[in-house]
Amino acid sequence: MANIIGSDVDVVVVGAGNAACASAASAVENGSSVVMIETAPEDMRGGNSAFTGGAFRFAHNGVDDLMHLCPSLADEDLENIDFGTYTHDQYYDDVFRMTQYRADGDMCEILVTNSYETAKWMTTYGVDLIPAMGRQAFKVDGKFRFWGGLALRINGGGEQLVKNWHEQMSKIGVDVLYECTAIGLLHDEGKGVHGVRVRYQGQEHDIAAKSVILACGSFESNAEMRARYLGPGWDLAKVRGTAFNNGAGLQMALDLGAMPYGHFSGAHAVAWDLNAPPYGDITIGDQFQKHNVPFAVVLNSKGERFRDEGEDFHSYVYARYGGEILKQPGMCAFQIFDAKVQHLLRSEYRCRFLTKYSADTIEELAGKIEGMDSARMIKTIEEFNSACRTDIPFDPNVHDGRCTEGLSIDKSNWANPIDEPPFDAYAVTAGVTFTFGGVKVSGRTEVERADGSAIKGLYAAGEMVGGLYFHGYASGTGLMAGATFGRIAGREAAVHAGTSN
Ligand SMILES: Cc1cc2nc3c(=O)[nH]c(=O)nc-3n(C[C@H](O)[C@H](O)[C@H](O)COP(=O)(O)OP(=O)(O)OC[C@H]3O[C@@H](n4cnc5c(N)ncnc54)[C@H](O)[C@@H]3O)c2cc1C
């Protein structure tokens, strides 16, 4: 390891998650020698990427395109699976709708137009893509129908993705230094960025490099930065993933004059088990999440509903659930289901660690939930049940329009009366996934200053780049954006290092 610290390399990649590995692979493809530095120990490597469920959003024109990425699809009962299409236009529409039309148009174009090719490229590095049935399509009348653009997911989720990437890193000769923390960038006006200062084995060292790629996540693990940028209360949110994304990369780049970019007071945050640990637990992965809000009635501890649970498919709204829960008394909420929808609930509702209450009557359930205004809860559910338009058929695969009428907050779709025992309530709080603010990069992923000039030799990819996410997020975009921009960063860093044209 000491030789690595002392020797010059073409490219240093900071971080060891999906964006970092995509960057490193691409830099090697373009002739560069690469060293990767990871602040975490080896068994905790890979940041948030290791915690993902493996949702992967890319454009496609139907089953023939999917077959190229997942040849085993030919063995599926394709008569009874409707994958639909997910065209560039559908992808653009989703990103712009989610972000209230604020996403950076150039970045969005790079993401969308490269997404299918990026997915294909990932399969050449051994990433196994499989159909996302159950999570993204329900069986109705014997047929699965996909609703949300996430036809295939990464087999084995993030844990397998990171394991696979690191096997590839060894194969292609990328050295990874664990428990090695980037603390600064080496820079002078003439040469630009020419290496990284790290803390390693209790000492500071300089690693010289011709190009540096920052792929070291956002600042979601840092309570002080969450409170500073996201606002009061966010310091108390639970963190869904790694404890190591403390905003160090962002700070280093800002210190050099990089332009802060994107939605700095925004974050991706979901409904997360009330008693989950403060940071993610890799043995549980993403299973503390509770995404089936569209089939629930969600109450705060005053026994009141506070959102339209049927606004949209969870993939398009789940990233806002956390922020809404943080505003409720005690920063908690309760998702209530009856027996009718049990078969539709995702695997996370069968996780070993659940804060769950069950009962055979609503009255009994209301009495069991700690801190709940039970009288108000019973009344809210009675009112909700009477307001459901049960004359409209229920269909979980489409916006079915089965709404409530006459409530102060109506439910727009999938409104079933909560009347069939047993009844279950899941207690949730906010789990922050990642933060939206980051640095500004060019189309070549060069980190830019406020005046639009590039900081020579410095590239960034993944969650630490701002501009793609505002207000909301379409699930499966994070891994795709990390891989797409990481691949570009690796290539451009190699060009700057002089190992590629
Ligand atoms: C529970 C959960 C589930 C998710 N599910 C999905 C999903 O299904 N699909 C999807 O697309 N996205 C999902 N996401 C979001 C996704 O994880 C991210 O968008 C993506 O993984 C970000 O990749 P990245 O490489 O930018 O960052 P990360 O994977 O977080 O990697 C950052 C790396 O930088 C390292 N690092 C940080 N600071 C330093 C430093 N100073 N020096 C050296 N190293 C440093 C970290 O240790 C880590 O290795 C999920 C996230 C979570 C938490």
The DSSP helix count reads 12
Return the CATH class of the largest domain: Alpha Beta
Shape: globular
Q: Give the overall pLDDT as a whole number.
A: 95
CATH level-two architecture of the largest domain = 3-Layer(bba) Sandwich
> How many distinct folded domains?
2
- Catalogue the unreliable spans: none
Identify every distinct bound molecule in the structure, by name, code or SMILES. flavin-adenine dinucleotide
Radius of gyration: 23 Å
Question: Could you state the oligomeric state of the chains shown?
Answer: single chain
Distance separating the two termini: 30 Å
Percent strand: 15-25%
The CATH homologous superfamily of the largest domain? FAD/NAD(P)-binding domain
Largest sheet: 8 strands, mixed
Tell me briefly what this model is.
By secondary structure, this protein is an alpha/beta fold. 28% of the residues lie in helices and 22% in strands. The longest helix is centred in the C-terminal third of the chain and has 21 residues, at 477-497.
Structure description:
There is one protein chain. The chain is 28% helix and 22% strand. The relative contact order is 0.20. With 501 residues, it is of the alpha/beta class. The protein has 2 domains: 2-220 and 436-497, FAD/NAD(P)-binding domain; 269-431, Flavocytochrome C3, Chain A, domain 1 (Alpha-Beta Complex), CATH 3.90.700.10. It contains 12 helices and 21 strands. α2 (18-29) runs parallel beside α6 (157-171), α2 (18-29) runs parallel beside α12 (477-497) and α5 crosses α12. It binds flavin-adenine dinucleotide. Residues 14-20, 37-40, 45-49, 51-55, 181-182, 215-217, 240-242, 244-245, 248-249, 280, 286, 433-434, 462-463, 476-479, 482 line the site of flavin-adenine dinucleotide (FAD).
